[in-house]
Every structure is written in structure tokens, then in C-alpha cells.
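Ticket #4471: structure export looks truncated?
Reporter: QA, pipeline team
Priority: medium

Steps to reproduce: submit the single chain below to the structure queue and open the exported record.
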Amino acid sequence: MQFTSIAFLLFAALTLFFYFALPKKMQWGVLLAASYVFYLFAGARYLLFIAYTTLVTYLIARWLQARADAEDAYVTAHRETMEKTERKAYRAREKKKRFRILTVGLFLGFGLLAVLKYTAFALSGVNAVLALFSPARVAVPSLLLPLGISFYTFQSMGYLIDVYRKKARAEQNLAKFALFVSFFPQLIQGPISRFDSLASQLFEPHRFDGFRVRSGLCRVAWGFFKKVVVADTAMVAVKTLIGNDTKYSGVYVLVLILLYSVQIYGDFTGGIDITVGLSEMMGIRLAENFNRPFSSRSTKEYWRRWHITMGTWFTDYVFYPLSVSGGMQKLSKFSRAKLGEKIGKRIPVYLATVVTWFLTGLWHGAGMNFIVWGLLNCAVILISQELQPLYTRFQARFPRLTASKPWEKWQMVRTFLLMGLIRSLDCYRDVGRTFRLWGSMFTNWNWGGLFDGGLISFGLSWGDWAVLLLGVLLIWAVSRQVGDTPLRERIAKRPVLWCAVICGLTLLILIFGAYGIGYDASQFIYNQF
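Actual output as written to the record:
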């Protein structure tokens, strides 16, 4: 059931009706039932996988909590007789035991994701190696990939780690925990929520709030506009450019970079707007996942603004633990002794960064292009970090230039194009093919083709281009609205203006959206990974 389908609109309306019509104590039950019905539309067999992740995570978390409670009770009971060193040693032993339990839980949780998502990729790699020595091949199975498995697995495993760290208490009610894992608005593409911020909102009662409903509906409509008017229009040209790279090389690669940036932004942020808006109508505030990423002046800043909850997940649960692990501490000591303080102190940090970005790329998809995508982002960030002293000296040498608006805009354009270039690995998929097409931008000077009918050979008419351009300009204008109160809330406070905006967006969606007889709403991009 796609977010942009009529079926989903009816489903969401029915869910909201029962959510507010039934007694408040039943609200979380309505959400649980709705979430599993929503998941059922993807296929009844997929329910087994989300049920497995839910049950395994629930039981392991309860086990961890029981050990932590027993540890605290023992320390409290023997506080008068235990020395500080004894108490510290006891807690260290208990932490190791809990870590072993956590390891079992992570293996069972991530193991299912790894088998379903990466088995074919791994076996294809094995076959590539075997081909160098013999004609033997390993059969590559075709496995199911349940809806949203990457998102709900990461959310569940983050919860498990938080229970291990004693940052969250294990949920005692299995049904309530099942709702945390399966909450349907965020199931397809996030955001990846934390238990301590989401659970209380899911389980506590919410009264009907007309202002919140208006504000949320405004954001839902805006999300639909970005998805079906902007992203799906750009998608037509993107598919054409990808499908015939022998014809569309050179300057057309730059056109693809620009168009795909528009498509993925409209697609992903549009889906998040629908998710956050629908949740807001229920009185539930989800974490924001974007903060004007195309205004970033560096790659590092870009990743603080794009897919924020994914970035913070990898930072909190991969980078920091790996950086301070015992193995990294030993490596740091060894590196400083052998290579000197200046180089030695960098090696553990850089290694942790490379591992984090390698896993980030792998999370996005089972393909070498995604791994290279992650490592290229890592390389740009690390190189920029090493060049920081040069940037500082340049800023000191040319203070008026580096403080000017044109320089700021240049940094934004540079970051946008660089991120778009790396992102094109997602389009062409094959790494060698992508690199060859990058090179063609400097060897195939076919700019004239753009002004000789090239732009309308992508499957878009001049009218479509006009709609796309106006849509991008509207998104840009809305993103420029700043202040303590979001624009949709300012609109929601004025019912007449709100009605005009909703009607206007609806007309734009119906007239210019990628709908029509026989139209099949395309999958959201992040739902395809």
C-alpha cells in the first residue's frame, strides 16, 4: 500500500477516525492493529519476519533488564559490606555478562537482515572469485526482502543497545513493544526513532486537537506535492537518462546529477512529510529527518542535515563505541609509539570512520556501488578534515572573501554538486560504468544537444519542464521560511488561509501530479533498498 495511493488515504482516514472515536485507553491498540493491517497489505508472509524481530528483541531486552535489576539489587543489599573496588569489579563482571546477552540479540536481529538482504550479494562475490580459478559456481538463491526491514531492524537493535546501556528500561508489554517496532507511518522509510522519545507518545492518550490536525494535514499535502508533482515528474527523465547511457553521456550526466538530486529530495522528504504529518495529526511528534541539506557548505554539514536519524544512529551505535573500544585503545597506543603522536592519534579515528561509512553504504543496499558510495563520502570527509588548517589560513588571509555571501553560495553549490556526483552511483549502479560516465563530462563536450531538442528527448514535454521548475522553486521558497514557528503551523492558525493552501495543493497534485489512467504509483526510493 503506497503512501500516494487512494487506498492509503482511505486507510489513514479510517485509522484516524477509530483512533479518536474509541476510548483514549484503546488508542495504542488501534495503532497496533492498523500497523499490522498495513503490513499485511505488503504480504501475509512478511508478518513472520517482523514478528520474529519483535519477539526476539523483546525477550533479549527483558533478559538484559532482569540482569541489570538483579545487579542493582545486589549492590544495594550489600552496599554496607562491599568495598568500592569490590563493587566496581562486580559491576564490570555483570556488564560483561550483559554484553554477551546483547551480542546474542544483535546476532539474531542483524543476522536475519544479513541473510535476507546480503546473501545474494555475498554469493555473487564468491562466484566472481571462483570464476578466476574454475568453472564451478555457487547457486544464488532469490530471497524475500520484507517491507521496511532495514528500518525496523535498526530501530529494534538501537533499543536493545539502549537497554544494555541502561538508557532505557525494557518494555514489559509485548503488544506495546510490537507497536514501537511496527508503527506504520514510519515503517517504510523512517525516521529511525529511539524508544525513549517515541514509546511514551505511542502509549499515552491523545485528545483530538483541531490545530494539530490542520497542521499535520498541511504537511501531508505538501509531502504529496513533493512526491507526485516534483519527484515523479523528474523520475521520468532520470529513467530515460539511465537507460541509454551511450546516448546520454557528457553533459547529460550533469543533467542526471541535477535531476536525480531533485527526485530523491522530493521523494524522500515528501515521504517523511507524509509520515511526520500523519503522526502529528495523532498527537505524536517524530524526529525530523531533514534540515535544508542543500544549504550545506561541506560534506560533513550535509550529513548532519540529510537523513539525520540514520546518521545519528551510526554515530551513536557504531562510530563512538568502536572509537573507544579496547581494541581501538590498543591500536592507538601502538600507532603513537610506532608512527608518532601526530599520525598515530589519527589512525583509530580514521579506521572507525571508514568502518562506519562502509556499513552505512552497505545499509543502503547490497551492491558494490553502495559500498563505494559510502567510502567516497568517507574519503571526502577525511580529506576535508586534513585540509582544515589550510582552510583556516585561507580564511585568515582573505577574511572579506570567505565572509561574503557569494563565497557562501559557492560552498553550497560545490557541496551540492559533489554530493550529487557521488549519489549518481545509485543511478548507474555499476561502479565502472559510473566512473566512465563521470569521465565523459570532461571528454564529450556535447552541450549543444541540450538546446537542440535534447531536453525534450527525456520523456518530458516543455510543459512538464515548466511544472518541474515551478515545483522546485516553490520547494525552495518554502524552505527559505525561517522562524521559531514552522510555516505549516502559521498557516494552521488561520483557517481561511489553511483551506486555501489545502485546496491549492490538492489542485496542483490532481492537475500536475504523475497520476492518470493506468498509473501505478512508484515506490519511494528508500523503500527499494
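Status: closed, not a bug. The export was complete when the record was re-opened. Leaving a note from the reviewer for reference: Residues 516-522 have pLDDT under 50 and may be disordered.
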